[in-house]
Specification:
By secondary structure, the protein is mainly beta. It contains two helices and 26 strands. It has a five-stranded antiparallel β-sheet with strand order 1-2-6-8-11, with no helix packed on it. The protein is rod-shaped.
Length: 424
């Protein structure tokens, strides 16, 4: 078999290599029984990049000679375009093959070779199917899967105690090379496990099919800077079609695993100083003669008029002048207050024994106050002098962040008693 026929047999399987990659694979051997090793190599990286590539290790098998010398084949070739101008072939490739160890041409013609003599026994008539080398020299063919992992934390600066989101996005670029003696493909790869170390002693592992991106929420409880690290563990298969010097194809398929990781800085700022400002509130009452109504008018009164000598029923209410205030950094949010109880202060009223409210005893917010005045308002300096009724209020305020505070507030209301008497 001539070198020209060997090149032709090599060129045809090369063109079919993409189809052949889908077929089952076996390790290949040359005619002399020596194995040619095709290895799948993975390189893990933890600075945001990793890659998978395939390469041929040279053995004693004589492979076709690719163009250039940037490869592991023991032979290399030079392809020179030569005019021929025959009816069947307008021009040819003259192929000069050299032993890489000695640089000696191994396909030189004998001195008696007929014309035209281009200095080689190997020529190929140029055509799309038999001339795959009209391109710059390439090194050993390889398939390479580039994996880049980007990790980010949002927001960039969060308040300690509030949620942050750690995101990881994996991008990939696949290069599948094809030359005279090897074609490669990398297939069916996926992320099998995500491992996230939040940097504060907490971590999380996610397994199963989650695509090429993941988002995890995490709360940093203490202020500081944290190194949030994410690693994607990837598995797949790579396969190769290798050709010996006679154009015979040998298919190999190998599994691979590789990890790629990256990190991002998470910052947890100190919680802003929180202040809980108490509400400003006073007592209000609604008077009744007899039993109190189940539905009180709104608003309650701060100043009431009652009949002299009549037992008056008073429902007690909380009158808010300004709600409780949560001051959190620059924000100001209002709470919600309610009356939980009250206490009558001062002396007893003129109510008959056992009927009026006894001072200095705590009552629930729904209890009524029973008071009576037998003496009308005094007149001092020509002005009526109302009665002052001191009351202590027990108030509970719930703030927007859930904080619950209790307050004790001193207040009072005024009572005017009709039929005022003249006084000195």
């Amino acid at each position: 078999m001539t070198w020209r026929s060997a090149v032709l047999k090599t060129a045809v399987p090369t063109g079919l290599s993409v189809l052949l990659l889908a077929i089952g694979t076996t390790d290949g051997h040359g005619l002399n029984g020596t194995s040619a090793t095709v290895s799948i190599t993975t390189v893990s990286g933890y600075a945001g990049h990793a890659f998978v590539y395939a390469q041929v290790s040279q053995s004693t098998v004589a492979y076709p000679a690719p163009t250039g010398t940037g490869h592991q084949s023991p032979y290399f070739s030079e392809w020179i375009r030569q005019p021929l101008a025959t009816t069947s072939c307008q021009w040819i490739w003259a192929v000069y093959v050299f032993d890489r160890a000695t640089n000696v041409q191994i396909n030189a013609p004998p001195p008696t070779a007929p014309q035209p003599n281009f200095g080689t026994t190997t020529t190929v008539c140029a055509s799309p199917t038999t001339t795959p080398v009209d391109q710059p020299p390439v090194p050993d063919a390889n398939a390479r899967l580039d994996l880049d992992l980007q990790v980010s934390v949002a927001p960039a600066i969060a308040t300690a105690g509030s949620a942050s989101v750690v995101s990881a996005v994996l991008s990939s670029a696949l290069t599948q090379d094809l030359n005279l003696y090897l074609s490669m493909a990398i297939e069916d790869w996926s992320v099998t496990t995500w491992a996230v170390d939040f940097g504060d002693g907490q971590s999380q592992t996610v397994t199963g099919s989650n695509g090429t991106a993941i988002q995890l929420s995490h709360t940093y409880q203490s202020p500081g800077q944290y190194d949030a690290r994410t690693v994607a563990f990837i598995s797949g298969h790579a396969q190769a079609a290798a050709y010996d010097r006679y154009g015979t194809v040998h298919l190999l398929r190998r599994p691979f695993s590789v990890a790629v990781g990256n990190h991002a800085l998470a910052t947890a700022a100190p919680r802003p100083l929180r202040r809980y400002v108490p509400p400003q509130a006073v007592v209000g009452v609604v008077p009744y003669l007899g039993a109190a109504s189940s539905i009180d008018p709104v608003p309650a009164f701060r100043h009431i008029e009652v009949l002299r000598g009549a037992l008056t029923t008073l429902s007690v209410h909380l009158v808010i002048n300004r709600e409780g205030l949560l001051v959190d950094g620059v924000s100001r949010r209002f709470g919600q207050s309610r009356l939980t109880g009250w206490r009558l202060d001062g002396g007893p009223s003129d109510a008959p024994a056992g009927t009026g409210t006894v001072p200095h005893r705590a009552h629930g917010s729904g209890d009524v106050m029973l008071l009576q005045w037998n003496t009308p308002d005094r007149i001092v300096g020509g002005q009526r002098l109302d009665y002052i009724v001191p009351v202590t209020l027990f108030v509970e305020t719930r703030f927007p962040d859930g904080h619950l505070a209790s307050y004790v507030m001193a207040s009072s209301f005024l009572v005017s008693v009709d039929f005022a008497a003249q006084s000195g």
